[in-house]
Amino acid sequence: MIALDIDKNDRDLLDVYSQTVTAVAEQVSPSVVRIEASGSGSGFVMTPDGYLLTNSHVVSGAKRVEVTLHDGQRLPAQVVGDDPHTDIALIRIDAPKLVALTFANSSALRVGQLAIAVGNPYGFDCTVTAGVVSALGRSLRTKTGRLVDDVIQTDAALNPGNSGGPLVDSRGQVIGVNTAMILPAQGICFAIAANTASFVMGKLIHEGRIRRSYLGVAGQSVPLHRRVVRFHGLQSESGVFVVSVEPNSPAKLAGLREGDLIVAYRDHPIGGVDDLHRLLTEEQAGVGATMTILRDLKKQSLWVEPTLRE
Length: 310
Hints:
alpha+beta, Thrombin, subunit H, Pdz3 Domain, 2 domains, six-stranded antiparallel β-barrel
């Protein structure tokens, strides 16, 4: 009898999981498109009036971009803006009654939660794969040599053609933009975090490009021990771990080192890479600022003057 009860419980759990994935697939699939540009990729609708998100590497340099909707309709698309630094691009189509997706707050993600990818791998439209959020705060170097910070790692299977499609949670909200997989490894795939994508999308809609202040730091978001937070009176329980510092960069000239933890910039708490990106606006180029770091668990202040980088 016990074995039968366990089997029944397992079946019930599987039913709940299946119901969740099925419901999300039905909700999200109408918003996912196939993109034909330099190659083939995916994208998804973010506004009812035709703004779509995808990867920069899907449309970058393409002379012609064509979108195929869920119902098979093929439409020309215009590249509104492109940000290779985050591998995010914004395109627009002219079509009525588009179903838009919404962003989740990716800073609230937890390792182990459900992650569902929808895309068009190898031309197989609206393919759904499911897995979990495997890790957070990763850094990923793209094929162009650029380093993208605060990337989500997932084991939801991605293949060529999935690039630019949405990674969503159990509510069907976008937690990331699928961007890459590591071959020949299995179950190691990456997505640009939704908070980063949302910020870039807003800039591209209003300005068509992104201009940033540049420090020359590659980092990843990491939690801080509570004792360290209390001892130094920090306002955030996380910070940015410095993975590398580029030669002759503003960060290098300021004395920043690999292994440092950035916890504040211009008196603003830095809880992750997203926080640093938001502060390094175009207006901050050439303006000196105090950067607060932890080095060997000791708090220090560095004076840094970011430069302009497009």
